[in-house]
Amino acid sequence: MTDHLQQARDDLEEAAKSADDDVRDDIRETTDAFADYVMGDTQPDHALLDERLNTLRQVRERADGNTEAKVESAIETIEEYRRGIDQA
Known about the structure:
The chain is mainly alpha-helical and 88 residues long. The chain has 4 helices and no strands.
């Protein structure tokens, strides 16, 4: 399951490279959070993932081109990961 988080992080890093300044900070903040999830001992729960997904959906609305495609890929990967974790 951590592979999903790593893939989402990788997609977001790619998205940040092509992002306009107005969305880059939001992408990087979310990328940093996923780096913590991948490297740390704790895994995100539904609430944390929902917060990150909401941010990414807002970014997707403001992005275009490769940035939008990579953010969309990250969203899909996170949603797949989220379906596999237990709800509290």
